[in-house]
Write a structure and sequence with these properties.
Layout (H helix, E strand, L loop, with lengths): L9 E2 L7 H11 L3 E5 L3 E6 L2 H9 L3 E2 L6 H4 L10 H5 L8 H12 L4 H5 L2 H16 L4 E3 H18 L4 H15 L5 H24 L5 H12 L4 H32 L1 H9 L5 H12 L6 E6 L3 E3 L2 E3 L4 E4 L1 H4 L3 H4 L29 H16 L2 E4 L21 E6 L4
Parallel strand pairs: 1-2, 3-9
Antiparallel strand pairs: 2-3, 4-6, 5-11, 6-9, 7-8, 10-11
Helix pairs in contact: 7-8, 7-17, 8-12, 8-17, 9-10, 12-14, 12-17, 14-17
Bound molecules: protoporphyrin IX containing FE (HEM).
The site of protoporphyrin IX containing FE (HEM) has 24 residues, from helix 12 and helix 17.
Length: 412
């Protein structure tokens, strides 16, 4: 039987209740599988590393929704909650000159060399957060109080979001936008809320420019006219979201994975080099990716892939979290968490091609500092690692909370 989007063969669970079973099912069904989301949107999906890599890098695919036939023809319900994210006019969903122009405005601030200069600031921030957790009594939610607080603090510092209340509002609104539980009305409300916080930020920085990236973007907008008002807002929306959500998941997933493999923590602590946290971060990116799926890459022409015809205008969803467990790419032990493996960095968690994550050096460094600071100071224990609830969203791959007790380690 030839596969087609007219007859989806499966769907994705909006609540991500059993990710590993879902990945295996998709892979068993084929390299490219027609699926349905929320009973409303049909797309090809791949959980296969090689196929995903081809989609990320092939000129026959574009992130620009102007190539999405079903959307252009009005077949996607207006209130479909994920629509705003997929159609926003930031670099993420643009191609060609527009993509290059928007990405160039920020690329220099995110090179590995520039990011390395932030190390002392991030180490200080991690230390302060751990100071406050040391005095907390009993169980703390490591996800909210550390894995969220650190990257949100870092990206807010870079973009000049000073007030804690604004950071919390941003997090709550972004959470509602990507949640599978949100109604279209709640998404609309959250979007309006985001617009208000970003609008206030632009207003403040326009009247009181500072040494931050929001002020730099405004200068590019007002002085050299390299981005318009809508692009300014959507670039800030993208950066403040991507800058904390993914790193929050990365830190949470790394701590969770290490707690599930206590031998790895012991090995790491006894390691002579400081490279262990870097290796743990890389293996987490492969084994328990912070991102569940990347939506969408649209075929700009008819493409035959793996014996399947993806027609011009059809979307492909890349199941990034599954590609890291692909035995064809990572060998027979792909299902095992092994920070000492040498091929982890071939994962697709930061994508490939022109949309390769601009924040990869920052995400990697923040998570590595977070692990180093946490495990060199505390013994971390979680009472029931099998009782954690996954995030209810297609976008992220993490748990809702990570309750742990922290005990200060005696000096060696
Ligand atoms: C730490 C974990 C992170 C992961 C796993 C991650 C993952 C990704 C992925 C998969 C993409 C490509 C999406 C696509 O092709 O549609 C991407 C793009 C992007 N990421 Fe990240 N990201 C992370 C951290 C960050 C951080 C810290 C920032 C901001 C400072 C950031 C900003 C961006 C931006 C702006 C893009 C769009 C790039 C473009 O379209 O040219 N990311 N990221």
């Amino acid at each position: 039987m030839s596969l087609s989007l007219d007859t989806p063969v499966t769907f994705l669970d909006p609540y991500n209740a059993d990710p590993e079973t879902e990945w295996r099912r998709l892979r068993e069904l084929g390299h490219l599988v027609p699926i349905e989301l929320d009973g409303a949107v049909r797309t090809w999906a791949t959980a296969d590393h090689a196929t995903a890599e081809r989609v990320f890098t092939s000129p026959a695919f574009s992130k620009d929704p102007k190539h999405w036939a079903a959307f252009q023809q009005g077949h996607i319900p207006e209130g479909w909650p994920l629509l705003p994210l997929i159609t926003m006019k930031s670099m993420l969903n643009r191609e060609g000159e527009d993509h290059t122009r928007l990405r160039a405005l920020l690329a220099k601030a995110f090179t590995p060399r520039r990011i390395e200069l932030l190390r002392p600031m991030i180490e200080d921030m991690a230390g302060q957060l751990l100071d406050s957790l040391e005095t907390a009594d009993g169980v703390v939610d490591l996800r909210r109080q550390y894995a969220f607080a650190l990257p949100m603090g870092v990206i807010s510092h870079l973009f000049g979001v000073d007030a804690d209340t604004d950071r919390d509002l941003l997090a709550a609104h972004y959470g509602a936008v990507i949640s599978s539980q949100s109604t279209p009305l709640q998404v609309q409300h959250a979007q309006a809320g985001l617009g208000q916080v970003i609008g206030k930020l632009i207003e403040t920085k326009r009247t009181h420019p500072g040494d931050d990236l929001t002020s730099a973007l405004i200068a590019a907008r007002d002085g050299e006219d390299r981005l318009n008002d809508e692009e300014l807002v959507e670039t800030l929306l993208l950066m403040l979201f991507a800058g904390h959500e993914t790193s929050k998941n990365l830190i949470t997933n790394a701590v969770r994975s290490l707690l599930e493999h206590p031998d790895q923590i012991a090995a790491a602590r006894s390691a002579a080099t400081a490279g262990w946290s870097h290796a743990a971060v890389e293996e987490t990116l492969r084994w328990r990716s912070p991102i569940r799926v990347v939506m969408f890459y649209y075929a700009t022409q008819d493409v035959w892939m793996d014996g399947v015809l993806v027609q011009q205008g059809e979307p492909v969803l890349i199941y990034v979290a599954a590609t890291g467990r692909d035995t064809a790419r990572f060998g027979p032990d792909a299902e095992e968490f092994k920070p000492d493996r040498t091929d982890a960095a071939r994962h697709l968690s930061f994508a490939r091609g022109v949309h390769y994550c601009i924040g990869a050096p920052l995400g990697r460094m923040t998570a590595s500092i977070a692990l180093q600071a946490l495990f060199s100071r505390f013994t971390v224990a979680c009472e029931d690692l099998s009782d954690l609830t996954e995030e209810w969203t297609y976008a992220s791959n993490s748990v809702q909370a990570l309750p742990v007790t922290l005990t200060v380690m005696a000096p060696v």
